[in-house]
C-alpha cells in the first residue's frame, strides 16, 4: 500500500475574512449545494456519522438536499469530528469546479453555531486540554486514581459531560518542558531541529518526548524547544471556537518563526498537531508568517527518514522487532508525506509490518463526550477488530488512537518511535 500524497490536498474552501463566513443563510445555501453533490456520489457512505445521517434523511423522505430543514443541517454537521477522511474519498475537492470541502464546511457550521449560542462550560473545558492538565497536575496521582475509578467517573459525568467508560490520558506530575532542561545534549551536533511539544506529550506522555530527544541525540541532532508554545488549537474546532484557535495559532507562529527563519525544520510527535500547524494555520491566521511556519513543519517520521538518508542515524545493528501492526492515524494522511514510520520499522531486520487502515473514532473530545462516546466506539469497531486479530506489537503515531485501541481491545498500543528506540537500544 502506498501512502504517497494520500489525502494531502493543499487547497481548501475556508476564508475567515469573507464577510459572508458567519452568514447563516449563505452557509445553509452552500450546505444544501454540497449535500446534493454528496447525494449523487455517495463514495463516503458509511465513512462517518455525518454521512450516515445525511443519506438517511434524504432516503427516508425521498427528497433532494434542497428540502432539508435547518434542523437537518445541524443534525448532519454536528457529529463531524474532523477526521478529514472524506478528503481521501472525495473526487470533487479543490481545484475541482465543485470545490467540495466537507470538513471545513462542518467547521464553518460549528463556528456559526458557536458565535450565535456559545458552548456549555463543560465543552469549553474539554476544548482546553492544556488548561485542564495544568489544573490537575498538582494532584496528578489523585487525578489519575479518580480517572480510573468508574464510580467517581459516573458521579462526575453529569457535570463534566465525560462518559464514565471513556479512557482518559494520564496526567503527568512533571511536564516534558520541565524535564527537557535536564536532558543530555548530543556529543556531536550535526543538525538542529525545533520540537513542537504538543499538549499530549508535554502534559500527559512526557516520556515519549524524552525518548524522542534521546533518539535524535543518537542521530547527532540537537533538539530546540521554543518558549511560549501553546496548544495547537485543534481541540477548539470541536466547539467551533475559531477565535481561540486563531489566538493559539498566532502565539505558536510567533514562537516558532525565529527558528524557522534560521532554516530549521519543525517536528511534532502527534500527527494531528503537525497537521494543524502545516494545514490549518495559514487558514486561521492568513499571512506570510503563518505560511513560513507551515512550510517548515514536517511529519516526524518524514524528518527521521530524511536523517537516515543523510547518514544521521543511531550506530549499531538494530535488534529485530518481529511482527508489528501499524495503525494509520487519519490526520497523518492529510500531511501528504506518505507513511515513513511504517517504512522505517519495515526496514529493520527481522521485522514485518502489517498496516491497520481504519479510524479509531477518538478525535480528542469526540471519543470521551457523554453524547458521542457510543458513536465513537462504533466508528472504531473496524479498527478494534483488526487490532485484536493482529500479531505482534500494535503501534500508532496518535497517542489518543492508542488510548482508544487499548480501551477497545485490551492490547497496549505504543508510539512507533518507542519501537525504533527499543530496536537501537535507546532507553
Which structural traits does this protein have?
disordered N terminus; alpha/beta; 427 residues; 8% strand; 8 strands; four-stranded parallel sheet; Rossmann fold
Furnish the topology, listing elements before pairings.
Layout: H1 24-41, H2 49-61, H3 70-77, H4 86-89, H5 102-117, H6 121-126, H7 129-136, H8 140-148, H9 150-160, H10 176-180, E1 191-195, H11 199-204, H12 206-218, E2 221-224, H13 234-237, H14 242-260, E3 266-268, H15 271-284, H16 288-296, E4 297-299, H17 300-309, E5 322-327, H18 330-333, H19 340-346, E6 351-356, H20 373-379, H21 381-389, E7 393-396, H22 399-409, E8 413-414, H23 416-423
Parallel strand pairs: 1-2, 1-3, 3-4, 5-6, 5-7, 7-8
Helix pairs in contact: 1-5, 2-3, 14-16, 15-16, 19-23
User: Into which percentage range does the β-strand content fall?
Assistant: 5-15%
* Helix share bin: 40-55%
Distance between the termini: 32 Å
What is the count of β-strands?
A: 8
Query: What's the CATH first level of the domain at 316-423?
Result: Alpha Beta
- Spatial extent as radius of gyration: 21 Å
What is CATH's topology name of the domain at 316-423?
Rossmann fold
Just name the CATH architecture of the domain at 316-423.
3-Layer(aba) Sandwich
For the largest sheet, list the strands in their spatial order. 2-1-3-4
Shape: globular
**How does the helix and strand content classify structurally?**
alpha/beta
Largest sheet: 4 strands, parallel
SS summary, helix count? 23
Low-pLDDT stretches: 1-5
Average pLDDT works out at: 94
